[in-house]
Design goal:
The complex is a heterotrimer. By secondary structure, chain A is mostly helical. In chain A, 50% of the residues lie in helices and 6% in strands. In chain A, the strands form two sheets. A two-stranded antiparallel ribbon of chain A has the order 1-4. Chain B is globular and about 75 Å long.
């Protein structure tokens, strides 16, 4: 058993374990060689906001079949993190897919950074530190983040002295 | 019978011997569990049982996960379900996973219609591709014999098994791991830079289109349409007992007459027979056997014994690559196909007044190494090959279908004279032991001066990997040995190198069972009964021939009278014998 | 054909190592370990020597060498860096440590710096989860790493 708190995204955790099994797969049997790879690709899609609801069903079916048919212990247990997170935290998967939200703020592609115009003092520190030049504004007036340019690196959040950067 | 195990498969009681797999036990009561990587040519050493594709999984009562039926042995009281919803769903998903890393270009795939994966997709009722993702991008290669497109590889490892365990050539092997695993020649090289013998057994067992033959049918069509060219055909002995399978005949049906007619319909100007070349081979090789034996009996200590046959081009490649120190042992006689080409482009062409450059000799072979053999520089005169190129039995079948010929409706015709006349001894070249038996028929009669009391040397027939016999040659015990598969050949050559090989004559064929299971034959898909039926047909073809000894072939006798003089004459040496080269990788 | 890049002396060393293991094909992995330890890597030519000594096809040796990420056919750096990506290290931010190593050394995972000083690899758990995140350089283990430590650590190895 592994204990984690609400700062960990269950989809990302499942993905982390699967990355391990995909890397360790010897490549002999079909379910482990191709099945785990396909599961990982589905998780990639979900964490990047490109997932569909049917992906969750595919994932569940794949996980069951891989568990049932893989040749060795690695393959037979590789779907366990997916199955256990699906049975206990299915709503997190659904949020990723339907609402494009990662409540633990771990899935970069799903984050939206914005500047609270009330709290922003217009000091321009965020804009000067943004590596993507995604923040613009006039000094002493509220700055704005261009979501098209934002690479969700979190630099603005770490630099802002007024707590004006929001992440959802 | 003791040691019978009782179990239940799909509610049916089954009793099978201990050690039987669930797959075989199910087959014994008519339950056909689909399998993909599994291959077992019972009675030969061709076997692949990695239990890796997971298509053949079944449900075993009391077991947590599904069991691969190919690798699960029966147990007393076992209750097996091969068609539950759980099994059917799992099997379909596994097949869908294989498809998700496959080009799925079936319409234009050379294996279309003969692909075991395609058959499973139909059988599993797969109507869509649920899994998309990264596709493997692996190497492609066209050699003169084999075409390799590993994007179509499903990693069943059958080719790896035959290349390593059966042939001991050791070229193909798994490289890297996980999703990046690929089957590749040593150091990811091209076949041409390895010890590959082009035996084609990897092609014979490949379930998909990853390994196929180099297709020469378009080139042949062009030549057949060219009014300036005289195109002549020579089909090998093993072709006539297998070609029928491609047209719905039962395996083992002899279609010699229809074969000749179909070649005429395709537009070949003359339809001859490699069997003529086989009779000629016996004359030359038989004389070489007798010459070495006489020298040996005369006390010559330098004579190289055993003499080894040299008909099989993959076997020739094998010893040139692996035994360069023993190149004096094999007979210098060319293969029947090359002897035929050499005679066709000299004796016959001169007789007919056809200039060499206008004459195209095409061999129809059960073999893929023959394509490589045609390219050998030593078999060319001023760059013009004695045999221009070779097509496989499968390629011929495709060409017949493409040319609107209804094979089953064809009448029987004979081969043209003079290069189409042959004996029963030539017919059996296609099965392991056949060359030996044919040689013995001639060697015995020439050596003893007596007629053979019985023509059939059954001791050198059959599927045993290494067969031995001692023949009484008027008091002299002639020890002979017949081996098929290159693994058995390696066993003999290693003994020879160690000075422990006590035979006078050795026959080697690279393919299991001989040419009848060559890399260019219709696919057997793992059914050994097909190969056995072909062998039976080969011996039936022999038994039906009026002449059954090579030295009694009247057109062979005429060839020596008119052109060659005698076996091992200077002209024979020039046209019908070859030499070997050290091709070991440094 | 491969270029002859290893000396006759190295070939004799490889042969001697095979002899130490009685040229037993079952000891292939142990022999590869010993040879890589001695030469730093396993080029084609060396694999051929091992195959010949053990009486197995070179394709088999090549298959094993490409299967295990530990074996390398290109020379490793004099100071091989391995960043642990096991569960504990990962949860404690080893991915950021790895990114920093890549940035500081200017190479990707599996590569060697042009001066041959460092090579970079990842591994899964060195059994020091209490020190997570962990990296090893040569035989030395570094624990409780912070991306900001990396530059200093690398500087220790300037030679």
């Amino acid at each position: 058993m592994i204990v984690m708190d609400e700062d960990d995204c269950m989809v990302s955790v499942a993905k982390f374990f699967l990355e391990f099994t995909v890397g360790e797969s010897c490549g002999k049997c079909t379910p482990c060689r191709i099945g785990n790879k396909r599961m990982l690709e589905i998780l990639d899609r979900i964490t990047e906001g490109r997932g569909k609801m049917e992906d969750i069903d595919k994932l569940e079916n794949l996980a069951k079949v891989i568990k049932d048919t893989a040749l060795c212990g690695l393959g037979q247990t590789s779907p366990n993190p997916v199955l256990s997170t699906l049975s206990n935290f299915r709503e997190e998967y659904v949020e990723h897919v339907k609402d494009h939200v990662c409540r633990a703020h771990k899935c970069k592609a799903l984050l939206t950074y914005s500047i609270d115009p009330v709290l922003c003092k217009g000091c321009s520190l965020c804009a000067r530190n943004c590596p993507a030049e995604a923040i613009a504004g006039e000094v002493r007036k509220p700055f704005v983040i261009n979501p098209e340019k934002c690479i969700r690196c979190g630099m603005c959040l770490s630099r802002c002295k007024f707590g004006a950067i929001h992440v959802i | 019978m003791e040691n019978l195990i009782n179990l239940t498969i799909d509610n049916r009681p089954v009793s099978v011997p201990k050690g039987t797999t669930v797959l075989d036990a199910a087959a014994s009561v008519g339950i056909d569990i689909p399998a993909l990587c599994h291959l077992n040519l019972k009675g030969t050493c061709v076997r692949n049982a990695p239990a890796s594709c997971r298509i053949c999984v079944v449900e075993v009562q009391g077991r947590r996960n599904l069991a691969p039926s190919c690798a699960t042995q029966v147990m007393e009281g076992m209750v097996v379900k091969t068609n539950s919803a759980r099994v059917i769903r799992a099997r379909k998903t596994v097949a869908e996973l294989i498809l998700s890393d496959h080009p799925n270009d079936c319409l234009t795939c050379p294996k279309c219609g003969d692909c075991e994966l395609q058959a499973l997709v139909t059988r599993f009722n797969i109507r869509e591709m649920p899994f998309q993702g990264e596709q493997s991008s692996r190497k492609k290669e066209h050699t003169v014999s084999i075409t390799r497109n590993m994007d179509k590889c499903i990693l069943c490892r059958r080719c790896e098994s035959v290349c390593n365990n059966v042939q001991t050539v050791g070229v193909l092997g798994a490289v890297r791991r996980g999703f990046d695993t690929t089957i590749a020649p040593t150091f990811d090289r091209m076949f041409k830079d390895t010890d590959c013998t082009y035996c084609g057994q990897c092609v014979a067992v490949c379930p998909t289109g990853a390994l196929t033959e180099r297709d020469n049918t378009d080139r042949l069509l062009d030549d057949l349409c060219d009014p300036d060219k005289v195109v002549i055909a020579q089909p090998a002995p093993a072709v006539r007992v297998a070609l029928g399978e491609e047209f719905g005949y039962a395996s083992g049906t002899i279609v010699t007459g229809k074969l000749a007619t179909s070649l005429r319909r395709l537009g070949f100007d003359y339809v001859f027979d490699t069997d003529f070349g086989a009779d000629l081979t016996i004359m030359e090789e038989g004389s070489e056997i007798l010459a070495r034996l006489k020298a040996f009996l005369g006390g010559d200590k330098t004579v190289k014994l055993p003499i080894m046959t040299s008909c099989c081009p993959a076997w020739v490649n094998f010893y040139e690559h692996n035994y360069p120190d023993l190149l004096d042992y094999p007979s210098t006689a060319k293969s029947p196909a090359q002897m035929f080409g050499a005679i066709a482009k000299t004796y016959w062409a001169q007789k007919m007044g056809i200039p060499r450059e206008k004459l195209v000799v095409v061999s129809i072979m059960p073999c893929l190494a023959k394509k490589f053999e045609c390219e050998r520089e030593e078999f060319k005169v001023d760059g013009n090959p004695d045999v221009d190129y070779s097509i496989s039995t499968r390629e011929l079948a495709r060409l017949i279908k493409r040319s609107n010929i209804d094979f089953r409706c064809l009448e029987d015709t004979d081969f043209d004279k003079p290069l189409g006349e042959s004996s029963g001894a030539a017919a059996i070249f296609g099965a392991t032991g056949g060359v030996m038996e044919a040689a013995l028929r001639t060697v015995y009669e020439v050596y003893t001066g007596k007629t053979l009391p019985r023509l059939e040397f059954t001791e050198v027939r059959g599927l045993d990997g290494i067969k031995e016999a001692t023949i009484d040659l008027a008091g002299f015990p002639l020890k002979v040995c017949v081996a098929h598969t290159l693994g058995n050949a390696r066993y003999l050559m290693d003994k020879l190198r160690a000075g422990e090989l006590d035979y006078h004559v050795v026959e080697v064929m690279a393919c299991p069972a001989g040419c009848i299971d060559g890399g260019g034959q219709p696919y057997h898909h793992g059914d050994v009964e097909i190969i056995k039926a072909r062998a039976k047909a080969i011996y039936a073809e022999d038994a039906g021939k009026p002449i059954r000894k090579s030295h009694e072939n009247p057109d062979i006798q005429k060839l020596y009278r008119e052109f060659l003089g005698a076996p091992l004459s200077e002209r024979s040496h020039h046209l019908l014998h070859t030499r070997y080269f050290d091709k070991s990788l440094k | 054909m491969s270029e002859l890049i290893i000396s006759c002396e190295a070939v004799r060393e490889v042969e001697a190592l095979c002899d130490e293991f009685h040229n037993d094909p079952g000891e292939l992995i142990a022999i590869l370990h010993a040879v890589q330890n001695k030469l730093g890597y396993l080029p084609e030519e060396v694999q051929r020597v091992i195959a010949r000594k053990l009486g197995i096809p070179a394709s088999k040796v090549y298959g094993v060498v490409t299967f295990y990420s530990f074996f390398s056919m290109t020379p490793k750096g004099r100071n091989p860096v391995s960043v642990c990506l096991g569960t504990a290290c990962y949860v404690r931010g080893s991915d950021k440590v790895l990114e920093e190593f890549k940035r500081v050394l200017g190479i990707e995972v599996g590569e060697t710096t042009p001066d041959g000083r460092f090579s970079l690899d990842c591994l899964r758990c060195v059994g020091a989860c209490g020190l997570a995140p962990v990296a090893t350089i040569g035989e030395k283990v570094y624990g409780r790493l912070n991306p900001s430590d990396i530059k200093k650590i690398v500087a220790e190895f300037e030679d």
